[in-house]
Amino acid sequence: MPTLIALGPAVLALAGAYVMLSVASLVLYGVDKAAAEHGRWRIPEITLHLVSVTGGWPGALVAQRLFRHKTRKQPFRTVFWCTVVVNCAALAWLVHSMPAAWLP
C-alpha cells in the first residue's frame, strides 16, 4: 500500500481540494436546509451548483441524503448531476494531461 507521500504533490493537492470543497458543500446544504425550515434567507441554488461543479459534489451528495434536502426538486437534481459529469470530465482531462513528473 503506497504512502501518501508517494502519491505525488498533484494528487495530494487534488484530494485536499475535493475534501475541502466537499466539507464546504455539506455545510452550505446544512445551512440552506435550516434556513428553509425557519423561513430565513436561502443560499441561491447557483451557489450550491458552483461548489458542486468545482469539486464539492461528493459532499453535496452526502448532504442531500443526510439532510433530506434538494432530493425532490427534479430540475435541481438534473442540474446537480450535470455538475457531477462536468467535474468528472474535467478531472479526467486534468489527470490525463498532467506531466508525468507530477504523478507517482
Major β-sheet, in short?
none
Distance between the ends: 13 Å
The mean pLDDT is: 88
Return the structural class.
Answer: mainly alpha
Q: How many helices in DSSP terms?
A: 3
How would you characterize this protein structure?
This protein has 104 residues and is mainly α. It has one domain. Helices cover 74% and strands 0% of the residues. It has three helices and no strands. It has helices at residues 9-38, 45-67, 74-97. Helix 1 crosses helix 2 (45-67) and helix 2 (45-67) crosses helix 3.
Features:
single chain; mainly alpha
List the helices and strands and how they pair.
Elements lengths: L8 H30 L6 H23 L6 H24 L7
Summarize the structure.
The chain has 104 residues and is mainly alpha-helical. It has one domain. 74% of the residues lie in helices and 0% in strands.
